[in-house]
């Protein structure tokens, strides 16, 4: 027997977001639904390389878990993102729930795409900062340039730009790609 359809319409954009089918490439950024196409092959190559080296390091040192998109991350009532790569420390595993991650991750990596890069550099960066993400990395998959930010006294401090690697203060290592 089919599930009955709710006759109560969603009242918030978060409720609209939650009604979308699983796998929908959409994020709720500052209470606005942002749709995006599937990532490019360059984007996915970069994602795979970084995830692989990071996951091995985190597993080998028993530091926590590394997750990849698509996975919903609920930061507050107006923001639900699908970051490319997420690290959650062992001590903070309680934010990992069946439906997604609820709260600020320890480290987030966004790989720029033509359709979403402006959000990664501005709105999402501001939300990550406001919500307490300790490290935020933005990567250009074509140039392999990396811009990192570290949360210091509740404000992001820009780190030296690099090329071809991430130097994580939080994990105290470098990830080359």
Automatic annotation (TrEMBL):
GO terms for molecular function: endonuclease activity. It comes from Chitinophaga agrisoli. InterPro entries: Nuclease_put_TT1808, Restrct_endonuc-II-like, Uma2. This is Uma2 family endonuclease. Keywords: Endonuclease, Hydrolase, Nuclease. Residues 23-161 form the Putative restriction endonuclease domain. The lineage of its organism: Bacteria, Pseudomonadati, Bacteroidota, Chitinophagia, Chitinophagales. Gene3D superfamilies: tt1808, chain A. The keyword Nuclease applies. The keyword Transcription does not apply.
